[in-house]
Specification:
- It is found in: Secreted, Extracellular space, Apoplast.
- With about 450 residues, this protein is α/β, with parallel strands linked by helices.
- The protein has two domains: about 290 residues, TIM Barrel (Alpha-Beta Barrel); about 130 residues, Sandwich (Jelly Rolls).
- It contains eight helices and 20 strands.
- The strands form five sheets. An eight-stranded parallel β-sheet has the order 1-2-3-4-5-6-9-10. The chain has a five-stranded antiparallel β-sheet with strand order 11-12-19-15-16, with no helix packed on it.
- About 45% of the residues are buried.
- The C terminus is likely disordered.
Length: about 450
């Protein structure tokens, strides 16, 4: 979960000017514990705060500028939003990440390469030394068209991050640990590889967004994609906006989590310093819907067979592993001696009458790499879904609605190496109402 919060929250803006008076920042009932509680109830494990956005206002008392909470009336100038978030998150077992905007519309050093890069490094050092373990640091290349020319020393910044927090994940268009998915709609490509070539990436380069969206099966670097999208139209809170409807959030979920990505959902606190009740209610609805769909797996009550299995019947790699509840380290592996290496399959047969489902979930043993290039799903011999990559998780929400079938077969028709399936699910989504002609609702067509 992303928390976009700052002076923009009080000016009804998305991009501040840098000329805002810090006195406007006064969230009178700010409660970071409420933010974290909202995240926990939504099933979130990591929260990221905009410690500084493009306007340059700092949510912590930086030694290197007075354009911060120091100059605001909030907590009589002694407040620290970053510290309050850390204090709220740690006891709940929620990880914390930070965004420090490279573009700074306030600081006079911006545009002076040496001076500003040193300033930025100093602030990075503050954030990564003062607040304990930071699990993700967010970088981007956002910058207005009329901004002063400025060369960011990303190499130096990344080196400092690594020096101060060795286990941190660094996010940017170019990784090096987590990559941007290439848009802010929360949609990954229908083909989405975790692998990519970092040498082809650069931060702020609009020409690579397609490559970021799909990844590269021949890529030599492991950079899983992260889908950032806001629960509202804007990233900061605006009185005129309301949260996206449930069907849109579910579509985002299927096209992010369901396409081998991490979903980073922005939920902006309002000017009082709280998450708005309308957003909390929508998040509860969203969490309940996800639980409703995926809490029951029809495949668990089926018999499972496969084209072959490594080590034979008692080798430990049988098809029963895909429904054992371990989605990572137990898996079905076809035999390396299988003569038909391009058509491995696993099949589920119902014993108590036809299965009714409209979602098929497939997961690879991602700890051993991403392998599957092409796959198909059949119900009683009729193809009901097909796709390319699987990765950590592939969700097929069936375009023609619910299927009734006695058998379901998943065929792996193309793979970089022996495919390893860790989990398969057959689920029913009661919120999915496709058009009668079998196409998704037009508002979702991309």
């Amino acid at each position: 979960m992303f928390f976009h919060f700052g002076v923009n929250t009080f000016t009804d803006s998305e991009w501040g000017t840098g000329r805002e008076n810090p006195a406007i920042f006064n969230p009178t009932v700010l409660d970071a514990a409420q933010w974290v509680d909202t995240a926990v109830q939504a099933g979130v494990s990591l929260v990221i705060l905009t410690a500084k956005h493009h306007d340059g206002f700092c949510l912590w008392p930086s030694k290197y500028t007075d354009h911060s909470v120091i100059s605001s009336p909030w907590r009589n100038g002694k407040g620290d939003v970053v510290q309050e978030l850390v204090n709220a998150a740690n006891p709940r077992g929620v990880d914390v990440g930070l965004y420090l905007s490279p573009w700074d519309r306030h600081d006079p050093r911006y545009g002076k390469n040496k001076e500003y890069n040193e300033y930025y490094l100093a602030q990075l050092q503050e954030l990564l030394r003062k607040y304990g373990s930071v699990k993700e640091i967010w970088f981007d290349g956002a910058k207005g068209s009329n901004a002063p020319n400025m060369t960011y020393d990303f190499g130096d910044w990344f080196s400092l991050v690594r020096e101060l927090q060795s286990s941190i994940n660094i996010f940017s268009d170019a990784g090096p640990d987590v990559r941007w998915v290439g848009n802010e709609q929360g949609f990954a490509g229908s083909t989405c590889w975790s692998t990519i070539n970092r040498t082809a990436l650069s931060i702020g380069n609009a020409s690579i967004v397609g490559y970021l969206n799909t990844g590269d099966p021949k890529g030599t670097d492991w950079l899983p994609p992260e889908c950032d999208v806001s629960i509202r139209t804007g990233w900061f809170w605006h009185k005129s906006q309301s949260p996206k409807p449930l069907h849109q959030l579910l579509q985002i979920y299927y096209n992010s989590v369901g396409r081998n990505c991490v979903l980073l959902l922005n939920v902006p606190p309002n000017p009082t310093g709280l998450i708005s009740e309308s957003d909390i209610l929508r998040l509860r609805e969203f969490r309940k819907a996800i639980d409703t769909v995926f809490s029951s797996n029809l495949a668990e009550n089926c018999s499972a067979t496969a084209s072959s299995q490594r080590g034979g019947k008692d080798g430990g790699f049988g098809p029963e592993n895909v429904v054992d509840g371990d989605h990572l380290w137990t898996y079905w592996a076809p035999s390396d001696d299988d003569d038909d290496k391009e058509h491995h399959w696993i099949e589920f047969r119902a014993s108590d009458g036809p299965l009714r489902f409209n979602v098929v979930r497939i997961q690879e043993a991602i700890g051993l790499g991403q392998r599957i290039r092409q796959h198909e799903v059949y119900a009683d011999g009729k193809r009901i879904a097909s796709g390319t990559t699987v990765g950590h998780k592939r969700l097929h929400r069936l375009e023609k609605g619910a299927v009734h079938a006695l058998s379901v077969k998943i065929k792996i028709t193309g793979s970089r190496a022996t495919p390893l399936l860790s989990s398969v699910g057959l689920h029913f989504d009661p919120f999915w109402h496709p058009n009668p002609n079998g196409q998704p609702p037009s508002k979702f067509v991309r």
